[in-house]
Sequence to fold (365 residues):
Amino acid sequence: MARRATPEVNAGSMADIAFLLLIFFLVTTTIEKDKGIARQLPPKEDVVDPPKIKEKNLFIVNVNRSDQLLVEEKLMELKDLRQAAISFLDNGGAPSGSPEYCNYCKGKRDPESSDNPDKAVISVQNDRLTSYKMYIAVQNELVAAYNFLRDRESERLYGWKFTEKSKDLDEGKIKGEAAKEALQEKLENVQKLFPLKLSEAEPKKSGS
Amino acid sequence: MSKFTKKKSGELPAISTASLPDIVFMLLFFFMVVTVLRDDNLLVQNKLPKADQVEKLKKDRSVYIYAGKPSSRYADKYGSEPKIQIGDKYTDISNIKFALTEARQKLLPELQDKVMVALKVDEKTNTGMVTDIKQELRDLNMLKIIYITTPGNEISQ
Fold:
């Protein structure tokens, strides 16, 4: 009697099974892409003696409950906010020769506006009934103003854009510890030229 | 001589599909690896505001807070007032500290000090609610927050 060979298992349906699984995972996959505006909250402690900020170094952005903007006591459209913030931060109004003189500012040097970027503070006041959409839009414009100025300075000092390099650092595109540290230091240098000084007032009760 | 004459059948040979399972398996493994099954079941409406000056979120060290109106499914039961959701359930503003501490304990121990709070708030919510949450976070000393947004810009529309 001839020895019967074991019949080969038919693998033709393998592809079908794999396709089925593939489609299941394709459908359930949500590739996480959460991005947002990061903020550091001020720690909770009673400031006994709040530092005095001169009127001219303060840029007040007020948002009312119907989402209208009042910037420095003038009504403003959202699209003009970025430019207004840039010209405030970049003003450099301190007279040349004084210790506060800002030698990299390219603004109007208006003595009525901010002395230098280190002194300049942007204060955002919201109503409790302001929509979150508007709140984020305002924050976004103000961060954009800072990023614009930081990009300009890093372009001048190092020849690359601040936002691009810090993104590269975040995404791990910079290889090697030494390179990372060197870049970190340069980024901090640029940050020091235009430190992010955004203050948020406690929101007022609605109707005020 | 007949040894070298080619068979002239005229038909094209069938394309071998033997490597198809391999290709499909490769894709399958890719999707299996990148898949994260949703761990939070959304109970609130969550249409995020737009922004373009954004940073990436480090997911391993973050705690999520959702806020917004209850989804249409739950609207009859919970009304239409904005609510806060942490984990899988609604949380009251007074209870938020407890819920956050609980959520933080689920993270890796070495990352618990570096925790970042991701706020996923519906764009129609009032800022007042966000402020209340921020006050609670300051009490808890969780000071790093990130407002999660979607790409885009409010002005260009």
Summary: Chain B has a mean pLDDT of 80. Chain B is about 25% helix and 20% strand.
